[in-house]
C-alpha cells in the first residue's frame, strides 16, 4: 500500500487536466506570443508540455526519460490529452518507490512525478498568463503544497549552471499560490 504523503498521482492528474484545459483554448493567433519562459513562445511551450507528459509516461513504463524529447512535434490539447491518459494509466500500475532516472539523477518514482507536478503547474501558469487565461490553479491547496515541498528541495541559492531554474523572483503583492510557485521556479510576468 502506498503512503498518501508520497503519492503524487492525484496531484499529477489534477495539474495535467488543468494544463489540457488551458491548451484547449489557445488560438492559432496566440502561438507566436512570448511566455514567461524566455526560451519558449506559446507554440514551443505547448510542445514542451507534451514532451513532459511523454517523460512522465516513460518513467512509469521504462523507468527513465532517456531518449525522450525536450519538445514534441505537436502542441495541441488533443495530443496532450491522449498522452496524458497513457501516462495516468501507466502510473496507476507503476511502483511509486521504484528508482527512476531523470535529468537530475536517480530518484524514487514518487519524487520524480512530484517534480513533474511542479513543472506542470509552473508551465501551466506560463501558458495561462501568456494567453490571457486565469493563471491560478483552481484549488489553491495544490500549488501551496507543491511550493512547500519545492522550497525545501530546490533552495534559492541552488540555481544556474546545470540547474535549469532562474533566480527566485520576489512575488508581487497579492500573488496567488500558483504565481508564487512560478516565482520560486524563477518565472515572472511580464517576462524580462
Give a written overview of the molecule.
The chain has 192 residues and is mainly alpha-helical. It is 51% helix and 4% strand. The chain has six helices and two strands, in the order αααββααα. It has a two-stranded antiparallel sheet with strand order 1-2. A hairpin with a 2-residue loop joins β1 and β2. α2 runs parallel beside α3. 42% of the residues are buried. The model has no long low-confidence stretch (mean pLDDT 92).
What is this structure's SSE topology?
Blueprint: H1 9-24, H2 42-62, H3 77-93, E1 99-102, E2 105-108, H4 109-131, H5 141-153, H6 177-184
Helix pairs in contact: 1-3, 1-4, 2-3, 2-4, 4-5, 4-6, 5-6
Amino acid at each position: 500500500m502506498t503512503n498518501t504523503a508520497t503519492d503524487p498521482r492525484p496531484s499529477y492528474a489534477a495539474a495535467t487536466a488543468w494544463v489540457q484545459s488551458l491548451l484547449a483554448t489557445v488560438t492559432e493567433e496566440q502561438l507566436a506570443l512570448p511566455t514567461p519562459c524566455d526560451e519558449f513562445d506559446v507554440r514551443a511551450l505547448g510542445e514542451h508540455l507534451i514532451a513532459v507528459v511523454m517523460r512522465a509516461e516513460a518513467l512509469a513504463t521504462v523507468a527513465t526519460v532517456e531518449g525522450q524529447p525536450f519538445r514534441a512535434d505537436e502542441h495541441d490539447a488533443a495530443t496532450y490529452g491522449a498522452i496524458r491518459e497513457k501516462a495516468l494509466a501507466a502510473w496507476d500500475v507503476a511502483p511509486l518507490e521504484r528508482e527512476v532516472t531523470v535529468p537530475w539523477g536517480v530518484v524514487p518514482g514518487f519524487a520524480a512525478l512530484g517534480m513533474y507536478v511542479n513543472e506542470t503547474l509552473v508551465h501551466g501558469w506560463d501558458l495561462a498568463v501568456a494567453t490571457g487565461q486565469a493563471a491560478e490553479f483552481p484549488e489553491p491547496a495544490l500549488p501551496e503544497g507543491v511550493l512547500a515541498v519545492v522550497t525545501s528541495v530546490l533552495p534559492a541559492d541552488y540555481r544556474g549552471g546545470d540547474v535549469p531554474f532562474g533566480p527566485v523572483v520576489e512575488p508581487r503583492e497579492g500573488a496567488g499560490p500558483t504565481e508564487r510557485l512560478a516565482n520560486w521556479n524563477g518565472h515572472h510576468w511580464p517576462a524580462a
